Predict the structure.
Amino acid sequence: MTSKERVFATIEGKAVDYPASWLGLPVPPALPGLYDYFKVNDVDGLKAAINDDVWPIMVPYNNAPFYDVGCALQFAKEDEGGNQDERTLTAPGFFEDFTDPKDVDLYQWPNPADFLDTLKAKQLLEEAPDDKFTLGIMWSAHFQDTCSAFGMENALTTMMMYPDMFQAVIDRITDFYLELNGLFYEAVKGKLNGVLIGNDFGSQTALMVDPDMLRHFVFPGTKKLVDQAKSYGLKVMHHSCGSIHPIIDDLFEMGVDIVHPIQALATDMSVEHLNETHTDKVFCGGVDAQELLVNGSPEEIASRISEIKKLFPNGLIISPSHEAILPDIAPENIEALFTAIKK
């Protein structure tokens, strides 16, 4: 089977020659050690060395200095300690003191067409190997961005005290991503296989927000984002770190094809538990990136992969249980992971 065939077969619940795999997205500081160990010069070479199945396409978004679609919306109050590299979850946000939904347009919402490089997007898809499953890294984190818009604590307070204000902001953010994603999907129509969208809903032990609050405020926007991707014939992988077991069914009911990354040590998120509750569903992840990949030996990792393969022979894209490979994961453990998958 080709990588693309293997991933599609996994999504469709069909037998595979061996489980599909995805390395994830190594952070820049992790790359030199991986390049040196695998004797390659770039990410493409690294993915070839481990024979990875998923080929991520980073949306080319020219929002200097970030150049990252995940940082498309910046709500930080720079004069109040909010000048952070990425989101402002723990810093004051633009809407911190707003309670009237009519004020939602006081923020200078960017025009995604001014930043999205559609020519580069087409080039990235043309350069992708034909036999790989191409995955657009969209993020479209409308809930996390809403938390940034107020600051995390203020956002959750606003959700309870001024629900119309919270709804106005999350709806406006959702509309921004629908516009941006639509431009990207049109540019790469017929060449992209799937997309990764998502928000972090869970802590290590539980959801951060009551599931009914998510269903009321957040999931209508999620459904719109999923439906839009599906209208282009794309498979949808939905990301959330943490313990999210109470809303897994919600995600699949909204049309999500794959839930990622099933954080292995979070409450109720082990492969063993999901095998009992959702054996007919498709997940990506499962290999503990908090302890096992960091502190385990290659032999321990190979043994764990063998156990995982028995529990999910078809419905799992095996991957570290976090999308970002950090420098604390030894390259030999990455090699052990991908060697064991293919045995």
Q: What stands out?
A: Strands lie at 54-58, 133-139, 194-198, 235-239, 258-260, 283-287, 316-320. The two ends are 15 Å apart (CA to CA). The chain has a mean pLDDT of 95.
